[in-house]
Amino acid sequence: MSRILRAGCAALASAALLGLSGCGGGGGSDASGSTPVTARPAAVTLSGTVATGAAFEGATLVVTDRSGAEVGRIDAVGADGSYTLTLAAGAQAPFVITATRDELRLVSVHDSASDATVNVTPVTTLIAARLSPSGDPDRLAAEVAAGSARIDAAALASRVEEVRSLLQPVLDATGNRDTDLLRGAMQTDGRGQDRLLDSLKITITPDSSGSSNIQVTVRQQTAEDSEPASISFNSASTAAPPALPTVAAADLVPDGSSALIADLLARATACYALPLESRVSRTDAAAGPADVQATACRDLFVDADPAGYLHNGARVGPSGAFGGLFRAGATGLVFSRGSYEFSRVNGDLVIGYTTTTTGGSTDTGALVVRRVNEAGSGRPVLRVIGNQYAHDGGVAAFHQHRRFLSLAQSGWDYHSVGYTLSVANRTDGSGHPVYDRVVVTSPRGHQLTLRPTSGSSYLVLVKSGGTPTGTNFVRLRSRYAAADASGHPSERDTSLFFAPNDMEDTELSGLSAHSVWKFEYYLASAPGTLAATQHYKTRARPLSIAELRQRGLATLTEAGQSALAAATLPSNGRLPLPDSGGVTLDWQVPAGALAPTDLKLWGRASASGGSFNDQRSVASTARSGTIGCSAQTTSDAHCTSGGDFVPAATADGLHLWARDGDGREFASFYAMYRLATPQ
User: Fold this and answer.
1) Where would one find the signal peptide in this protein (predicted)?
2) pLDDT score recorded for residue 76
3) Contact of 413 with 401, CB cutoff 8 Å
4) Is the Cβ–Cβ distance between 383 and 367 less than 8 Å?
5) What is the DSSP secondary-structure string of 212-235?
6) What are phi and psi of 600, to 5 degrees?
7) Are the CB atoms for 563 and 11 separated by under 8 Å?
8) b vs e for 320-329, b when ≥16 Cβ sit within 10 Å of the residue's Cβ?
9) Could you tell me whether strands 45-49 and 116-117 are parallel, antiparallel, or unpaired per DSSP bridges?
10) Backbone angles phi, psi at 33, to 5 degrees
11) Which of 84, 228, 346, 585 has the greatest number of CB atoms lying within 10 Å of its CB?
12) Within a 10 A sphere around the Cβ of 106, how many other Cβ atoms?
């Protein structure tokens, strides 16, 4: 996640594939960089609340002192986010308090060796970032120990006041004008200071070892085609950070919403805790909303009726929305870590969440929910409703490291960042594509066209001359990984979709977290008539190339990478696919990287064309998986009748895909084709 807070291929012999089993402006330092040592009592007790709005339940909380030593730890923050911790005797102020859960990290500080209330929130993380000479709150503890960051009463008060000025419009709108942002009393009930946290999205993303990009976005209700208030700046800038514009209280999340989100996710967990036979009356392909029978499950939906749920054209069913209700494997699924994202023009809320299986595998997602009054009690509750769109669609920030291990082309590996425009290649009862095209208008007014192709599970981007590309990824900026590589990746990788002119990293870091995209749908049955218009908002901006290079990504195992590099391939470089058993991949996940939850393979059914893609969802705990063959349309000829790849099928590439809690997507891509020679 742009940190919210900070934000197999055995031998790959000719016919076998992939058994791949085998801120200068951020610091408060004086000239010497030293931090005065404060007299210390025998013990210091700290207490407070750890929250992002919702309680930061389950997080590990660690306190480090001036020397960099760990002087206190709580292994799991409780359900209400509160903590109390007595530090080791002799602990030296100042203290840095860090709460970590998955890829998310919150940071706070305490300047003296005295008992105190110290909260740990996105706002305190922003304060910590402004105390850090690198602008990176994750580095602050080490910077204090090294003497490059100073935390004393004066430095802390200065940075707190700076952050207060930056946030003042939202402080006023949420009734927090006089709230102590670091030490004020708070509870995770969506009121008071907690409502302030629900109303802010603070993202801090390092772009080098010495600076970080900081973005503050107001989570608010806006028109479908409008972006929320937002500011962006780099920690190395010597100018004062800009202040947020005026915000209307009526446009912010209603009081108490974080508690309602937690309640909804608890009710979803209770539904999935029921045995399959209690949840639904049938599980075959024809099952639908009427077959959801458990009251605990029906009550998740508006009017306690799953039939009213519609999201991107999908209704409740085994192969549609809430498909887990109809599968025994989803029993025991836990919904948690809810977050308010923004409100739609009709007042419906978009919320993020995490699911955890009984085996420990996690995934993230988002729901559109409606606040209603519960029958009988009249108390407000949230129920799921979906976006009520008739057609599929969506936009997400996307990041890719594209590697060319075969054909001695690794010198042309490159990074790309941008957006994926996702529309499923839906078919009618006869297996023919439903859509003729979808025209997408970007936040800056540029129009892009998506069209169906026979072997693709999604609509693909079309180049200006009308040529389909095989991808739905708009590359806004691309750069070679090797410092000595000249030119631009688009000159060699000619079949993909690159923006005509790369955006600069500074432009990317200033993009809105909640950018707005318009999708216009034209059906194959009436290509001259506009069938529908739908608007989508992103949940996060793309990282810049510099920011992406600070992150780790999952990769194929060393054995798998070596096998690809050593493979003997035909002149076109495409790897022949196995005629049975599918494609097996093994991968590794470095510390701090996201674990893949989707594997995808791209290829061609024959030497003359017929491009296709196949994919396989995997658990986040998995480190191996097999991609099988699956036809997408009636004219898709890359699979045999038995479900294997046809003998002439070859692979162009594969990727390991992961998604963070902000909905941003990351992919390690392994390309298997010969690059073009620049003209």
Assistant:
1) 1-26
2) 95
3) yes
4) no
5) EEEEEEE-BB--TT-PPPEEEEET
6) -140, 145
7) yes
8) bbbebbbeee
9) parallel
10) 75, 5
11) 585
12) 29
Q: Which amino acid is at 4?
A: I
Q: How confident is the model at residue 41 (pLDDT cuts 50, 70, 90)?
A: low
Residue 597 has, within 13 A of its CA and on its CB side, a CA count of 18
Q: Residue 98: enclosing H or E segment and its boundaries?
A: strand 95-101
Residue 191 binned pLDDT confidence (cut-offs 50, 70, 90): confident
Exposure of 356 in the CB half-sphere (CA atoms within 13 A):
10
Q: Which tokens belong to 58? A: 């389950």
Asked if residue 423 lies in contact with residue 348, where contact means CB atoms within 8 angstroms, the answer is no
- Cα torsion at 497, 503, 506, 507 (round to 10°)? -100
Residue 423: both structure tokens together: 């529309």
pLDDT digits (tens, 9 = 90+) for 442-458: 999 999 999 999 889 99
Q: What pLDDT, in 10s, does the model give residues 494-523?
A: 999 999 999 999 999 999 999 999 999 999
Question: Is 232:244 a contact under the CB 8 Å cutoff?
Answer: no
Q: Can you give 389-456 as a three-state secondary structure string? A: CCCCCCEEEEEEEEECCHHHCHHHCEEEEEEEECCECCECCCCCECEEEEEEECCCCCEEEEECCCEC
Q: Which two tokens stand for residue 319?
A: 């192969």
Instruction: Give the whole-angstrom CA distance, residue 391 versus residue 354.
Output: 25
Q: How far apart are CA 155 and CA 169, in angstroms?
A: 24
Give residues with Cβ within 8 angstroms of 225, minimum separation 6. 516, 518, 535
Question: Measured between alpha carbons, how far is 62 from 98 in angstroms, rounded to an integer?
Answer: 5
DSSP labels for 330-362? GTT-EEEEEEEEEE-TTSPEEEEEEEE-TTS-E
* DSSP assignments along 543-559, one per residue: PPHHHHTTS---EE-HH
Residue of 247, 218, 432, 263 lying closest to 353 (CA atoms):
263
